[in-house]
Amino acid sequence: MTPFAPQLLALVALGGAIGSIARYAVGILAIRWLGAGFPWGTMAVNVAGSAIIGLLGGAIASGLPMSNEMRLLAITGFLGGFTTFSSFSLDTGTLFLRSPVLAAGYVALTLAGGLLAFALTFEAMRRSYSP
Question: Can you give the pTM of this predicted structure?
């Protein structure tokens, strides 16, 4: 099967649609719960996406069988639609115009949170799964 086979593209599209809807929902809930003064929703999905890819990557690295189709659906599709690095860039630029210190804090918290979430979940899955 070629990488651009219609079945594979459909899996990426389906995962992307679900991920995008989930991202939208998190953004709306973050604004309702925490206000619009800080991009909590974008930060939350980037950290959560890092944790999810840590879980999946750790499991795959430990030998958990995952079909190419499932990887396309979950990682390329869902996580591609769910995480928001382009939105992160826009939010950072907007915050920078208001306050360079706030923008720097946002970048530091998002990167540290995402990397920590990835490292913890990757290692947890790597250690807990044994084929």
Answer: 0.83
